[in-house]
């Protein structure tokens, strides 16, 4: 049995981990899109490193685009097996993948209109027809269901607490009469998340593929989210008379922001402004979350006892048409704009950045992970000039962040996730989904906890299990 790491290897995005059995059965864990990696992003997304037609099964940990975003490309290039995931993940993947196809096609059209004579034509990675074909291959697996894929392979999905439907994937593979247990963490959420239940514990594994996004960071001892939001909104909108623009992923982060703003209204503290959610996808994702109340933690359930609209409040407006989105930028009145994507690598938020980045009245608020090479990452790193739509813009607006809103667990959360394991019985831990320096720091923490064999795979590196 072999495993090869074709994405999220010494990087955070592009999750693709391929397990090959001795009989040529191949199991792909996630099929994510690379995001925010600068000029190499398109090249990475155009090459799998394996033949899609040879993949037998796909297991999807959750619906974020960096974990599911290349599934339609996989299908277009020949994959015809089943894609296994939880019910909420399927519901989210349906809207996220359709949205991804639309954004790619729109961005390609925009770039091709303005391309110079010697520049190549930009093409979308896949079409809406590719997405429709992909969705027909999805197969539902409930949390904690011991599910047999075939005579050799069983899967169990446990709640990872990252976004709605997110799961850790536990494989039991039988070869030559011997069982091997492999756990893939997916993305691990936070213990004590604003909305979701904490990650579940799981049975002993032989091999663990472990995410490490925040392997050297702590989210603790930060101000409460509601109070930080209130301070930033008051400073920007009431004192500076500007706009707060929040690049936020349509799934997870946007709903947490709405929940926190609703909490301010329940306390009578919410400033009287217009709060735009400028992402049609966010409206659909919010509805998916409403349709799966079983994922809420006890704190949310207590709020629901007094307020059955936890994502709605005075002044909230969901923006659907592109014409209305453009009109926001022409309106000088102070407001709050929540728009995708979270790394500002695509979607409507880039237009809001373009139109507002050079005005000192405005504030850009970052509320989640952004890779260093992404537009959001560059703003977080304090760059004074940014490049968008083939043009350079001066960064004059204020840039703030709320780190505690990350859906990724910090190193204490990651260690707690692994605390159910006997390190002596784990043959190897593979660290994925992290910047290399961060992974090296986290590897030392794991060694201190008794895990003896830690590998940090390189892109396309293969290991014998």
Automatic annotation (TrEMBL):
Residues 13-249 form the Metallo-beta-lactamase domain. The keyword Hydrolase applies. SMART domains: Beta-Casp (SM01027), Lactamase_B (SM00849). GO terms for molecular function: hydrolase activity; RNA endonuclease activity. Pfam families: Beta-Casp, Lactamase_B, RMMBL. It comes from the Bacteria. Residues 254-379 form the Beta-Casp domain. Keywords: Hydrolase. PANTHER family: CLEAVAGE AND POLYADENYLATION SPECIFICITY FACTOR FAMILY MEMBER, INTEGRATOR COMPLEX SUBUNIT 11. This is MBL fold metallo-hydrolase.
């Amino acid at each position: 049995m072999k495993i090869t790491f074709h994405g999220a290897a010494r990087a955070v995005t592009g999750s693709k981990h391929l397990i090959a059995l001795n009989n040529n059965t191949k199991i792909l864990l996630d099929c994510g899109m690379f995001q925010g990696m600068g000029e190499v992003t398109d090249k990475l997304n155009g090459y799998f490193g394996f033949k899609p037609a040879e993949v037998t099964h796909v297991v999807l940990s959750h619906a974020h685009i960096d974990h599911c975003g290349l599934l339609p490309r996989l299908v277009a290039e020949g994959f015809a097996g089943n894609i296994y995931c939880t019910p909420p993940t399927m519901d989210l993947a349906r809207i996220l993948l359709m949205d991804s196809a639309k954004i790619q096609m729109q961005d390609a059209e925009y770039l091709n209109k303005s391309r110079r004579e010697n520049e190549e034509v930009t093409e979308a990675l896949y079409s809406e027809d590719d997405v429709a074909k992909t969705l027909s291959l999805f197969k539902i697996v409930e949390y904690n269901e011991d599910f047999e894929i075939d005579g050799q392979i069983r899967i169990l999905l446990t709640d990872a607490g990252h976004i709605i439907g997110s799961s850790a994937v536990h494989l039991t593979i039988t070869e030559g009469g011997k069982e091997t247990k492999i756990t893939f963490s997916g993305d691990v959420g936070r213990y004590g998340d604003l909305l979701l239940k904490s990650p579940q514990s799981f049975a002993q594994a032989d091999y663990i593929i472990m995410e490490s996004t925040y392997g050297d960071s702590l989210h603790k001892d930060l101000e409460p989210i509601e109070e930080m939001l209130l301070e930033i909104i008051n400073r920007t909108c009431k004192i500076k008379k500007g706009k707060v623009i929040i690049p936020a992923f349509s799934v997870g982060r946007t709903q947490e922001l709405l929940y926190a703003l609703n909490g301010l209204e329940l306390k009578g503290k919410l400033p009287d402004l217009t709060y735009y959610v400028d992402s049609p996808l966010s409206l659909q994702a919010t509805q998916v979350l409403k349709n799966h109340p079983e994922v809420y933690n006890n704190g949310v359930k207590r709020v629901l006892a007094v307020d059955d609209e936890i994502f709605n409040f005075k002044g909230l407006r969901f923006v659907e048409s592109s014409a209305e989105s453009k009109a926001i930028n022409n309106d000088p009145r102070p407001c709050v704009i929540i728009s995708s994507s979270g790394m500002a690598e695509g979607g409507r938020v880039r237009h809001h950045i373009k139109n507002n980045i050079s005005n000192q009245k405005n504030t850009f608020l970052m509320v989640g992970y952004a890779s260093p090479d992404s537009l959001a990452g560059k703003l977080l790193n304090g760059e004074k000039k940014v490049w968008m739509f083939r043009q350079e813009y001066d960064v004059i607006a204020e840039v703030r962040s709320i780190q505690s809103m990350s859906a990724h667990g910090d190193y204490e959360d990651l260690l707690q996730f692994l605390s159910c394991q006997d390190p002596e019985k784990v043959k190897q831990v593979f660290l994925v989904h992290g910047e290399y320096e961060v992974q090296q720091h986290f590897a030392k923490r794991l060694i201190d906890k008794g895990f003896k064999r830690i590998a940090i795979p390189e892109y396309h590196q293969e290991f014998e299990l």
